[in-house]
Amino acid sequence: MTLLAKPAARPALFALYAFNYEIAKTREVVTETTLGLIRLQWWRDALTGMFEGKTSPKHQVMEPLAEAIGKFGLSKELLEALIYGREFDLEDRLPSSLQGMANYADYTSTPLLKLAARMTGDTASDDVFQRVGTAYALTGILRATPLHLVQRRCYLPEDLLHKAETDKYALYEGKDLDKLIPIVKAVVDEAKRKLSGLPRQPGIIGTHAQMAAMYLREIERAGYKVYLMRQPPFMALRLWWRSLF
Prior knowledge:
Layout: H1 10-24, H2 26-29, H3 33-51, H4 62-72, H5 76-86, H6 98-120, H7 126-150, H8 158-163, H9 168-172, H10 181-195, H11 203-221, H12 235-243
């Protein structure tokens, strides 16, 4: 996706996505909630220092991120919003409902999309950013569900799990996987609803929307069994072709 952006924006995009990766993996690299909060606070403090004019920490991600912030005038509030969204990961609890899952997807994706669009010069309304960002993240959560369950993590709605007469502990043991089908379908339908009716979007915003739509179709083709879904065929070529017109 980054390689489809204008060359001048690519280094900054790589820095932004590296920052997002570092905070997103917090849950995976700590053994206690407190340690995770400390790790996220380090990133928050480093950002605050940079925006106050202090020298950025000697860090392989923070230094190029500082350059991107200076070059493109990135928003401190949006960067901090990404950190805030990742605090939920440390609580080891499920979203209570589909709306709660959508809110989590929004918090962890929409600010990132807005920051990336700032670098590429693409613009859209807040509503479009929210709809595309949420749909993209919901799709990503579904794709990552098999890995999450192996890691004993779950981001699927708790009320839908109860309705399907299962729970996260059964899923962690590899049981009741077929009971995920109606839950996955509900999430797919919500992501499709977010994308429904959107006009063609420019640049990186449109790329996110197209990627989400392609993955959603593959999930549907797999009968909503996310552990059987395939990579969309010729995905890179299709994204490149779209970027030309």
